[in-house]
Amino acid sequence: MKPEIVITARGHAGTMATLQAEFSAHLLHEAPERNAFFKQHAPRVRGLATFGPMPVDGKLMDALPKLEIIANFGVGVDAINLDDAKKRGIIVTNTPDVLNETVADTALALIMNTVRKFPQAEQYLRAGHWASRGPYPLSIEIGGKTLGVLGLGRIGEAIAKRAIACGMKIRYHNRRRKDAPYPYDADPVALAKNSDVLLVVTPGGPETTKLVNAKVLDALGPKGYLVNIARGSVIDEPLLLRYLQEKRIAGAGLDVFVDEPRVPPEFFALDNAVLFPHVGSATVETRKAMGDLQIENLRLHFAGQPVKTRVV
Ligand code: 8YV
User: Fold this and answer.
1) C-alpha 26 – ligand 1 centre gap (Å)
2) Which CATH superfamily, name and number, covers 4-97+285-302?
3) Which fold has domain 100-275?
4) Hey, where are the domains in the chain?
5) Cα–Cα distance between 130 and 136 in angstroms, integer?
6) What is the pLDDT of residues 65-89, one digit of tens each?
7) Conformational region of residue 151, where left means phi above 0, alpha means psi within -120 to 50, and beta covers everything else
8) pLDDT per residue over 194-248, tens digit each?
9) Among 171, 231, 287, 299, which one carries the catalytic annotation?
10) Active-site residue 278, yes or no?
11) From the alpha carbon of 94, which atom of ligand 1 is closest?
């Protein structure tokens, strides 16, 4: 008998196919009626495979009283209530490390595009302005500038390496200072003050909600750039929009938003923002590696072995 699991959303296609082949998988996102879905499957469901931002809270856990494991596709587990899982003795796994290099590539691209304005320059060409108005205005360069890393974890380290190769200087702030070869700032305001580009790489969730507030943006100032590849929730999004409109910071590069995939349309009109549709880890190779790790955790658990990447 294959172990029974629930899949919460339509995720990476190859991973979905393997999950459905290896387990008896019930698709919550395709259920016409949730109550009937839980009534039918809950007595036998032991695993949950989660994709994307759909909240997984105590209520959902209680609807699946036999639940033993929640295996997330992604390193960020902010959509899962970890306290609720812990209280119920439910294991939570994520997919760390396999995405570090790809997310770091995306971050470097976003830093570069935000400061050098390459997407805007390309738009200028496509709009036919090059011939009629002359060369695209000069941008500033990233070499010699300071990158402030807010959240120097494994992904932050991989980004720092790339930024150093481009001639940038690195500083950082974490809740706890770590053994790192970069200057440390005691809080996000001090880091913003000392940075030309402030890069947000913290986890999401309640502890970092609106960590980037007016004080931080004021410290970054009209010559500073903000780049976010973490979670939209870490920044006060309406405030950021206003600061960009009023040119109170120089620009922003955003891969993440508060209510994905919905992006406030006012952002589309900004010429000082570069917007990516959450593509941090979005390569064929990395998404496959993430899925393989998610599946491996489920496989190990149902074989009675310790999971590979446990969060709680
Ligand atoms: C993915 C991510 O876009 O790993 C994360 O936390 O945000 C990204 O790698 C996401 O998990 C896909 O569902």
Assistant:
1) 22
2) NAD(P)-binding Rossmann-like Domain (3.40.50.720)
3) Rossmann fold (3.40.50)
4) 4-97+285-302, 100-275
5) 7
6) 999 999 999 999 999 999 999 999 9
7) left
8) 999 999 999 999 999 999 999 999 999 999 999 999 999 999 999 999 999 999 9
9) 231
10) yes
11) 4
